[in-house]
Amino acid sequence: MIFIIIFSALTVGARTFKQLEPYQELLSYLDLLISIIFLIEIIIRYIAEGDFKRFIRDPWNLFDTIIVVGSLIPLESSNLVFVGRLLRIFRVLRLISFIPELRLLLNALFKSLPRLGYLVLLMFIFFYIYGAIGSTLFATINPFLWGDISKSMLTLFRVMTFEDWTDVMYEVMVFYPLAWIYFLTFIFFSAFAFLNMLIAIVVDVVNKENKALASADSEDERHKQELMNGIKKISGELERLKDRLG
Predict the structure, then answer these.
(1) Furthest-apart CA pair in the chain: how many Å?
(2) Is 205 exposed, middle or buried (0-12, 13-18, 19+ CB in 10 A)?
(3) Is residue 213 in a domain?
(4) Torsion angle, CA of 29/30/36/42, rounded to 10 degrees?
């Protein structure tokens, strides 16, 4: 199935090349075949689960079902062609549901969002303060970059990403020679301090997810061992009972 998902992504990408326009009909047949394979795979998974509510309760099963059912939308319908193509593109996301490591990373990302929200709020306050200072001091130098606080914050985002930030700094330093302090302190906090805090949050959540997964695996192993011991004990009792009856 992983191979089919990757092949499906390649067929979607092949449709974007003008050189392959003569093969659009072949690509359409391949797309239909892939959709049928995905549908059969979902049906088999549902039969194996045995209960529809329990099957849908798993978010990954629900996600796969939506993608597969959406992929069955006929592209010939002009009203649904855009939705159908988007869902075909999203097929590649099914790799996440098939590869446990990807699921682990995605779960860690979602669980880290609340903590990342506070970090984003702190960054916004930081940007707002520096933006207000920049629009107050540098608006007359370059109104396009520093005309108001929104423009200043956008300029600071450009500085944080190191996109020609030295040009912005040198332009300001012509009028304010000590402006380098403003830019360097901003870069230190935004590009280094906040970035490291972001990485630390994600790494911490990933480590917790790994520990939880390892704990679950060890618990499953313990249950299996207990089950095997119980089976061995029952087998021993049956053997003794057989000897007595014999």
Answers:
(1) 106
(2) buried
(3) yes
(4) -160
- The encoded tokens of residue 207 equal 């480590």
Q: List pLDDT tens digits, range 18-33.
A: 887 788 788 878 888 8
Tens-digit pLDDT profile for residues 168-215: 999 999 999 999 999 999 999 888 888 888 888 888 887 877 777 666
CATH of the domain at 66: 1.20.120.350
Domain final residue pick, 48, 82, 98: 98
- Residue 152's region, left for phi above 0, alpha for psi from -120 to 50, else beta, is alpha
Which of 196, 190, 148 minimizes the C-alpha distance to 165?
A: 190
Count of domains forming the chain: 2
Q: At what angle do helices 59-71 and 81-89 cross, to 10 degrees?
A: 130
- Same domain? 142 vs 109: yes
Looking at the fold, whether 197 and 215 belong to one and the same domain comes out as: yes
Beta strands in the chain (DSSP E): none
For residue range 51-86, what is the model confidence (pLDDT) as tens digits? 777 777 777 788 888 878 777 766 555 455 556 666
Which 3 state secondary structure label does DSSP give 102? helix
> Cα separation of 195 and 111, whole Å?
18
CA torsion 45-47-53-59 (nearest 10°) is 0
Domain extent, residue 122, equals: 103-232
- Could you tell me which residues come within 8 angstroms of residue 143 by beta carbon, excluding any fewer than 6 positions away? none
Q: Are residues 91 and 164 in the same domain?
A: no
Q: What CA–CA distance (Å, rounded) separates 142 from 194?
A: 28
